Structure formats: C-alpha cells, structure tokens
Amino acid sequence: xxxxxxxxxxxxxxxxxxxxxxxxxxxxxxxxxxxxxxxxxxxxxxxxxxxxxxxxxxxxxxxxxxxxxxxxxxxxxxxxxxxxxxxxxxxxxxxxxxxxxxxxxxxxxxxxxxxxxxxxxxxxxxxxxxxxxxxxxxxxxxxxxxxxxxxxxxxxxxxxxxxxxxxxxxxxxxxxxxxxxxxxxxxxxxxxxxxxxxxxxxxxxxxxxxxxxxxxxxxxxxxxxxxxxxxxxxxxxxxxxxxxxxxxxxxxxxxxxxxxxxxxxxxxxxxxxxxxxxxxxxxxxxxxxxxxxxxxxxxxxxxxxxxxxxxxxxxxxxxxxxxxxxxxxxxxxxxxxxxxxxxxxxxxxxxxxxxxxxxxxxxxxxxxxxxxxxxxxxxxxxxxxxxxxxxxxxxxxxxxxxxxxxxxxxxxxxxxxxxxxxxxxxxxxx
Length: 430
Prior knowledge:
Elements (H helix, E strand, L loop, with lengths): L1 H6 L4 E5 L5 H9 L4 E4 L3 H8 L18 E4 L2 H4 L2 E6 L14 H13 L5 E4 L7 H14 L8 E4 L18 E5 L2 H12 L6 E3 L3 H32 L3 H8 L21 H11 L6 H28 L6 E5 L15 H9 L4 E5 L5 H8 L11 E6 L11 H7 E9 L12 E3 L2
Parallel strand pairs: 1-2, 1-4, 2-3, 4-5, 5-6, 7-8, 9-10, 9-11, 11-12, 12-13
Antiparallel strand pairs: 6-7
Helix pairs in contact: 5-6, 8-10, 8-11, 11-12
C-alpha cells in the first residue's frame, strides 16, 4: 500500500503549486516523508531552495529538518508516486471560474503519471470539477485509466493566511477518494500531518461541495452585516454597537461588516453559482450576497467623497490617506483585495490618494492594481480610511489622526477599531 511505502520513504509525495496553500503542506509532509515541491515559477523555486517563503508567511526555521527537493523540472517530478495539486482557482473579470491553473496542473500530472500513482486535488473547485474537468485531461495525456491504473482523491485546503492558531495540524481535514481503497490510503497519508484527524467524505463531489459552502456561508453572513451597516448608517446608529448588544444572546452569530476580498470568501461562491447555472438553476441568495459585498468598496468611497464635498466643495482639491492595502490584516497577500475598489472609487472624483501598508509590496500592487505605496504619511489630509486593521495601526490614537488631518477630516474606520476613541475629527465606521 502506498501509505506504508511513503512512510518507509520507498516512494515520494509531490506538491504541485507552492503558494500559500501548497508550501505549508509540503513542509509538513517533509518532516515525515520524502517530498518533491514543484512550482512552475523558477524564481520562487530558487527562493525556497534558500529557505525563503516567497509569500512571507513562513519563517526560515520551518524549512529546517525537512526532506524536500524544490524543483520546476518534470523529470524530478516523475520520481513521485503521490501527487497533491494545490494551485489557485480564481475567477475572471466577469466572475466566471478560471480553471486554467488547475487544467494546466492536470496536464502536468498527466505527463508524469504512472501505474499505481495517487492524485489528490486541494484546489477549491465546484462539485464535479475534479472528476469531470481534471480527470479527463490526466487520462488523455497519460493514457492511463483512473480506478484501473491510478487512484484519485480530493481534500479541500483549509489554510488561512496569517492565522497562527488554525494551522494545518490543528484543523480537521476533509478527505475523499475514488473508491474505498483510495479513501483509506489518502486518509492515512493526511493523518501523518493533521493531528486533529480527518473526516472521510462519502465522495469526491461531497468533499468539493463542503469546501465551497464553508466560504459561501461566511460570505452570506458578512453580506448581511454589510447590508445592516448601510441601513443603520441611514438610521444614524453605529453598527458595532448594535452587534455588541445583539451578541449578548447565546445563539447570535458574531460576524462583522467589511470589505470581502482574498482568494476564498470573495471567489468561491462564484464557483458554486456557475455550476448551478450550468445545471439550469439561477442562484438568488448567494448572488445577492456577492453583489452586496462586491459593492462595498464603492460605497465606502462614496461616503468619503460626500463628506469632502460637504466641507470643501471641490473633491479635486482633497487628499485622502488609505491605511492598508492587503485583503486582510497582518498578511502580505493582495489577491482580490477590495481596497482597490475604494481607491478606484476615490480616483473617479480626482482625489489625490496616498496608500500605505506595512505588509504589502508596492511593485506588486502597481502591477496588479495600478497604484503603489506612498513612502511617507503626509499631513493635511481631508480623510483617512482604515480598511485593514493591521496590528501596527491598532495603537493609533486621536492625537495621531489630528496631527495628519485637517479639522473637518473624516476618519473612516471600516472595522470599528477606534470606536469611542476619535473625538477631534469626524468619525465613521461601517
């Protein structure tokens, strides 16, 4: 059985795609068995060979004591017998699933696949994608048949960038296989690195669906909070004070309003609604939540512009500081960051916008969104927006904001971290 062969290091496990998801998994396995870390980006591979995480999530010490070979070579990849695919699954500009990365990864696997091998996908996809979209590619290129020549499985990733508590080892891992034998072997293999244990799903489609609804549920709950914040703003009451009061009930779910970006919550629901549409069903609730969350960046920008127009008239004379550009606090990940929607909304009114962030890379932001970071925080701002509550910002006080703004300035604290602390300027939060 392949599990025992991996344990004895007679066979190797390969991770295809060494980003936020793939690299932590590869290193975890490499502390127990022999691993090949494969990525098509040669520059990233070279950094990892030097013990550097290109995503800035892992410390150099986490590379130590690992039996792993980093490569971009198919010849090296062929040495593996158990393949885990962890490439990104984004959406395009029309919010249609872009399967290009996972399809290319399937082609890569097809080129190296041998009889007796195992392939497990971790990339977030809609139910059916692994068997209906990825499997035919692997079978065509390899000339092998699943079930006869090789085994297939799916185990949805649960890596949360920046989260040091909910790590791979501490979170139950959902696993699935194409038959009973593959399920058993895949489960045992993951149990090597997941102390919390595994949940054996009844089928690959069930495991795929479980991942999709985890993030769809969060998306809808945050959308409700965002809609409530719009309503409460018109009523003239603070959303966080309402949530604080409602949260005293034992079964009230504690979600908060905010910008919903990143590669999970803001993307995954579109995979499910896409599949539903293919099957003749138009999702209403899920897409309604997506529409609300996708509109929040412009809503924030409009609130700030309205404030500026009321106080100085011409927004073209205004300066705004945006503190935070990553998709969430204390990470360097800018993928699908909705802060760009806020900035684009401001620039439509020709405001001068400065952006600072202690974690983001200016060149990466410029390449992805067309704006970079400002080296120094200026003075005399007409508004300051804090969309991302980095730890570095949490200690800032009223005196700080007064020192960099004009008396009429708005402090737009989207996550409410300065509630009841800003007295000398106009305070607003979602």
